[in-house]
Structure formats: structure tokens, C-alpha cells
Write a structure and sequence with these properties.
single chain, Nuclear Transport Factor 2, Chain: A, six-stranded mixed sheet, globular
């Protein structure tokens, strides 16, 4: 039987072997732990890759060549049964940073020879003893900023190297109480219900207060930034975001799950909306674009306390005719 604990063991072994492997052995490690039919979803310019060989050649090989002496610095790790039946099964989530020495350019981003952090979050679906599906989202604009580039106008919130949970208890290697997991999932789902109703009769701050602690922290992606407290989150992200879009579609997730006090979800895409102007300082396009997002949450008591967000902003703007990679680096980010 495929249990969350068995799946955690497989993913931890996969990470240990992948991170320790020489660059020329990455494909062998991928093939050992990932099914030949692996579907791997990544941010622009990678999108969907298929099979261990393609992922090793197009993502891990170039990353390892660029970020030498790579370390995986995990802040959150948990596993659970997917809330949805399609695709159901057990998924494992990990979140943190890939840290290395930025010694070679990557995607046209110039190297610095200094420490650099590639912020990431990954969901892995495990069947038997193999990883069959992965969503790995990573904040490429954050790496661009570390290299001295400015891919976006000034953000509404703060740009930081994002820490892990305030409670330092996000690595759930051991099984967690079922009732705590159920509470976390129920709180996340209540928040999603509120989030999808942009015509809520409550004020934005009162709406948020139903599922969030007043001293919440929203760790947003580069281009938006991080913000603290309900009042500042509403002012520095949520209200400007809602004012910039119309015709938001219903939420659509591939996986939504929780274990203990932690939970999260991802979609491909999560939702679509029409850009009516102002988002991230960009002019209106009146076009519909999709958002690929991972959200990770920490619950404290009966409300949410922290939220780490990964949004494929390169893909979002590319849909609206703005190639951020090419505009900022002078080099197309196309992955051959």
C-alpha cells in the first residue's frame, strides 16, 4: 500500500541521491526514482517536460552547471492523500531554496560568482516506489534580482530571501495527527471559498479576518513581494490585485492537501482573469491570461498564519506579449 510515509521516504532518498550526484549521473538518478512516463510541470520557459531524461537534460543539468556546489535547503516537507480523485493518490510536497555559487549564466541571467538562492516548491505524486508526476515551481525573477537585474517595476511589497516557518517545524518527516490535518485542509478550503468571491459584501479586511490571523505573513513572489498583517496585505497586494483584473474564473487545482499544520495546492492553471490594468505597474491589456500558482500554508489554531506563494509571472506576462526574460537579459529564454 502506498502511504504518505512510504512516499516521503522515496522522495527523501531521491533528493539525497539527486543532490549528491555528479552532473553526468543526473539522468541515471532521475531514471531510478521517476517513471519513464514522468510528467514534469515547471515555470516558463520550461512548461511541461516528459520523462526523466528530458528533465535531467533540460532542467537539472543546466541548473547544476550554473549553481555549483548546490545545496537543498528545505523549510517545509509533508505528504498526504490528494483532496481530489483526478489525479488522486499520495503526493509529497517540499519547499525551500536551492543554494549554490552562481558560476555560469542560466537562461540568459548573468552569473555573479556569489551565493545565490533559487526559491522553489515541488509536488510529487508517488505510485508504488516511483515518482510519476511532478510540479516544480521556482522564482526565476528572484534569481534575476540577485544578479543585479530588474525584471519588473518597483513592487508593492517587500523583496526578500524568504525564510521558512516562524515556528521552525515545517519538516514533517514523522506522521501527523489526522484531526490536525483535517483542520488545516478545512481552513484552507474556507479561505479558497472566500477568495473566489470578489463581490463579497464584507470589506476586504473583514473577509480576510475570517480565515487569517491579524499578524499573517504573505510571502509573495518577486514582482509582488512579501507583506505582513491583514491591513498591509490588503493594501499592498490583495486590493491592488483585485482592482487589476476582471472575470476571474473558478479555482481549479490539480492537487490540494494538508498534513498536520501545513497544507497547500497547485494548479495548471489555478485560474484565469482579464487584465484590466495596473498589475505590477503594467498597462491594461484587456486579455485573458492564466495563473500557474503554488500556495503553501501554515495554520495556527483555527486560522492561517503564513502563506508562501509561487506564481509563474514570466508565463503570465508572456501571454500578454511581454517577454520578461528577453527584455531583461537580451537573450531568449527558450529551452531547446
Amino acid at each position: 500500500m502506498n502511504t504518505p510515509q512510504n512516499a516521503k521516504h522515496i522522495v527523501r532518498q531521491f533528493y539525497a541521491d539527486l543532490d549528491a550526484a555528479n552532473p553526468d549521473a543526473l539522468e541515471d538518478v532521475m531514471a531510478q526514482y521517476c517513471a519513464p512516463s514522468l510528467v514534469w510541470r515547471g515555470f516558463h520557459p520550461f512548461h511541461i517536460l516528459e520523462g526523466p531524461q528530458q528533465v535531467a537534460a533540460k532542467f537539472w543539468g543546466p541548473v547544476r552547471k550554473s549553481l555549483t556546489r548546490l545545496q537543498r535547503r528545505m523549510d517545509v516537507f509533508f505528504a498526504a492523500q490528494n483532496r481530489f480523485d483526478d489525479p488522486g493518490g499520495v503526493w509529497v510536497c517540499s519547499m525551500g531554496h536551492l543554494m549554490g555559487l552562481f558560476d555560469q549564466p542560466w537562461l540568459g541571467i548573468p552569473s555573479t560568482g556569489k551565493m545565490a538562492f533559487l526559491r522553489y516548491c515541488a509536488f510529487h505524486r508517488v505510485e508504488g516506489d516511483m515518482i510519476v508526476e511532478t510540479a516544480m515551481y521556482f522564482d526565476i525573477p528572484h534569481l534575476m534580482v540577485q544578479a543585479g537585474l530588474q525584471p519588473f517595476p518597483e513592487q508593492t511589497a517587500a523583496q526578500l530571501v524568504q525564510p521558512g516557518p516562524q515556528t521552525h517545524d515545517g519538516l514533517l518527516y514523522d506522521p501527523q495527527p489526522i484531526d490536525e490535518s483535517d483542520k488545516t485542509l478545512a481552513t484552507i478550503e474556507a479561505m479558497i471559498t472566500d477568495l473566489g468571491q470578489w463581490n463579497n459584501k464584507l470589506s476586504l479586511e473583514d473577509e480576510l479576518a475570517q480565515t487569517w490571523h491579524d499578524d499573517m505573513i504573505w510571502w509573495g513572489p518577486t514582482g509582488i513581494g512579501a507583506t505582513y498583517t491583514i491591513e498591509r496585505y490588503a493594501k499592498q497586494h490583495s486590493a491592488p490585485f483585485r482592482a487589476s483584473f476582471a472575470e476571474r474564473s473558478k479555482t481549479n487545482h490539480i492537487c490540494r492537501m494538508a498534513e498536520g499544520h501545513y497544507g497547500g495546492f497547485f494548479g495548471w492553471p489555478n485560474f484565469t482573469a482579464v487584465h484590466t490594468g495596473g498589475f505590477m505597474g503594467m498597462p491594461a491589456s484587456e486579455k485573458t491570461a492564466e495563473f500557474r500558482v503554488i500556495d503553501i500554508y501554515r495554520r495556527d489554531g483555527d486560522k492561517l498564519a503564513e502563506n508562501w506563494i509561487f506564481i509563474d509571472l514570466l508565463h503570465f506576462w508572456n501571454q500578454l506579449g511581454v517577454d520578461i526574460l528577453a527584455r531583461t537579459t537580451g537573450i531568449s529564454g527558450h529551452v531547446d
